[in-house]
Design goal:
This protein is α/β, with parallel strands linked by helices. It folds into two domains: 8-71, 2-Layer Sandwich (Signal recognition particle alu RNA binding heterodimer, srp9/1); 80-136, 2,3-Dihydroxybiphenyl 1,2-Dioxygenase, domain 1 (Roll). It has two helices and eight strands. It has helices at residues 21-32, 90-99, and strands at residues 13-18, 37-38, 44-52, 59-68, 82-86, 105-110, 113-119, 125-130. The chain has a four-stranded mixed β-sheet with strand order 1-4-3-2. The longest helix is centred in the N-terminal third of the chain and has 12 residues, at 21-32. The radius of gyration is 17 Å and the shape is globular. The termini are far apart.
Length: 136
């Protein structure tokens, strides 16, 4: 089978739609330590995850946002996604979440790393992943 020409260079962002973005943003800040900034009107809470693109050497970032639900594209009706969050230490992250009363499934170890799973207060499913081959 011939592979199609690669048209996507990377992930540009992850966008979570919420009817109550402020408390959800605080949950991500308090439970996962994401450094979140809000727009002046409070309709969007966002963070950037910076990295250097290996193919171009260019410094860039992945956008992450919680956006007020009324701004959801009209063709998006359901929650149909899982965001995989790369963590420094899966065991430490899971212990932190459990100390806040959050139910976490895992830690499970596979050749590609350690994994755990939980949901945020609005039912969005999260996967936590520690690349056990990663050197920091």
């Amino acid at each position: 089978m011939k592979m199609a020409e690669q048209l996507i260079s990377n992930i540009g962002g992850a966008f979570i739609y919420s009817e109550n973005p402020e408390p959800l943003a605080f949950w991500y800040r308090d439970c996962l330590g994401i450094n979140i900034t809000a727009t002046p009107d409070g309709s969007v809470y966002y963070a950037s995850f910076d990295y250097t693109d290996l193919s171009s050497g260019k410094k860039t970032s992945v956008a992450w946002s919680i956006i007020r639900g009324k701004n959801r594209p009209s063709h998006v009706k359901e929650k149909l996604f899982v965001i995989n969050y790369r963590v420094f230490d899966c065991d430490k992250t899971v212990a932190h979440l459990r100390s806040k009363g959050i139910e976490v499934k895992g830690v499970e170890v596979y050749p590609e790393g350690k994994f755990a799973w939980c949901s945020d207060p609005e039912g969005n499913f999260l996967e936590l992943w520690e690349d056990t081959a990663m050197t920091v």
